[in-house]
Design a protein that fits this description.
Elements: E1 4-10, E2 15-21, H1 23-33, H2 37-56, E3 63-70, E4 77-82, E5 86-91, H3 108-112, E6 115-122, E7 129-134, H4 141-151, E8 156-164, E9 170-180, H5 186-198, H6 202-207, H7 212-219, E10 225-232, E11 234-235, H8 241-251, H9 253-262, E12 266-269, E13 276-279, H10 281-290
Parallel strand pairs: 5-11
Antiparallel strand pairs: 1-2, 1-10, 2-9, 3-4, 3-6, 4-5, 6-7, 8-9, 12-13
The protein binds zinc ion.
Length: 292
């Protein structure tokens, strides 16, 4: 596994920063869901952000969910990440194909459409934390920047990019999140704003062969960067036949009985990784016996 996330601080901890290389993560998602190029780009951007926002959480069992509900042909994106760099996700319509935008690039904004971004953090408390913003550009990175500013009151710069090969596989994917701490000096904020203004798109940077470290060095040009952590990241789904079986038990005797009466095997799909789980009539009867 070559994908990883780095954590760094700069300017005497006035700035905290994350960067990720997620090429394999996004390619694994593409293969699992057989996504079109624009769907791969959109899902890849949100997976990359999710992976980084996941490791920002402190608790071992914390779970982050990023949900885009929007009117575009992509029919929304859902991404879930844990605090150990594991991330998974899917789009509503993986086959969407739309014309390139006026820059000749994959038109993620039009595929996503107008809508909202939900950020849900389950940190084991009674109520999960939840923040919601209206999508600003539907390009995802800008929408997350807006979310951080409005919902978490943390001025941030977010860059995300997915670069495709001609055969529609993922060539490179990655991104960064840079955040200004509340005690940051004017000078630091101004310098960072200047950097963000002049930086090229993440896709262009990835094209130049940047690593997560050098990506941050580009964004934080002129700052003293201290890399404090490096964690592997991957597309990982925790579903299993046992888990699906538990879900079947939870639907209750009546529905299970109906399935058995049909006399056909039942196929259940995990949305997150697109794995199908097949249960024979015999297995369904066995599950029924476990029901109270
Ligand atoms: Zn799964």
């Amino acid at each position: 596994m070559s994908d990883y996330i780095v954590r760094a601080t700069a300017a005497n901890s006035q700035v905290r920063a994350f960067a990720a290389v997620t090429t394999e993560t996004v390619e694994t998602a593409r293969k699992a869901h057989n996504t079109s190029p624009v769907a791969t780009a959109a899902l890849g951007r949100l997976l990359t952000a999710g992976a980084m926002m996941g490791v920002m959480m402190k608790g071992d069992k914390d779970i982050l969910t990023l949900q885009i509900q929007a009117s575009g042909p992509l029919e929304g994106i859902t991404v879930t990440a844990d605090s150990q760099g594991r991330v998974k996700g899917y789009v509503g319509n993986p086959e969407v194909i739309i014309p390139a935008n006026d820059k000749g690039k994959l038109d993620v904004a039009s595929a996503v459409g107008i809508g909202i971004l939900n950020v849900i953090k389950d940190m084991g408390l009674k109520e999960p934390y939840s923040g919601q913003v209206v999508l600003q550009t539907s390009e995802i990175a800008e929408d997350l920047t807006y979310y951080f500013a409005v919902s978490e009151q943390v001025p941030s710069a977010v860059g995300l990019g997915v670069l495709m090969n001609k055969d529609n596989t993922v060539q490179q994917a990655g991104g960064f999140i840079v955040q200004v701490m509340p005690f940051a000096e004017e000078e630091t904020i101004a310098k960072l704003e200047e950097n963000v203004q002049k930086i090229q798109s993440v896709t262009t940077l990835l094209e130049q062969g940047h690593t997560a470290e050098s990506l941050l060095e580009a964004v934080l040009d002129g700052f003293d960067i201290e890399f404090t952590d490096k964690v592997p990241t991957e597309f990982y789904c925790n579903c299993s036949k046992e888990r699906v079986e538990k879900a079947l038990i939870s639907i209750g005797r009546k529905d299970l009985n109906e399935m058995i009466q049909e006399g056909k095997e039942v196929e259940l799909n995990c949305h997150f990784c697109n794995t199908n789980y097949v249960f024979s009539v015999e297995e369904l009867k066995e599950i029924l016996r476990k029901c109270r």
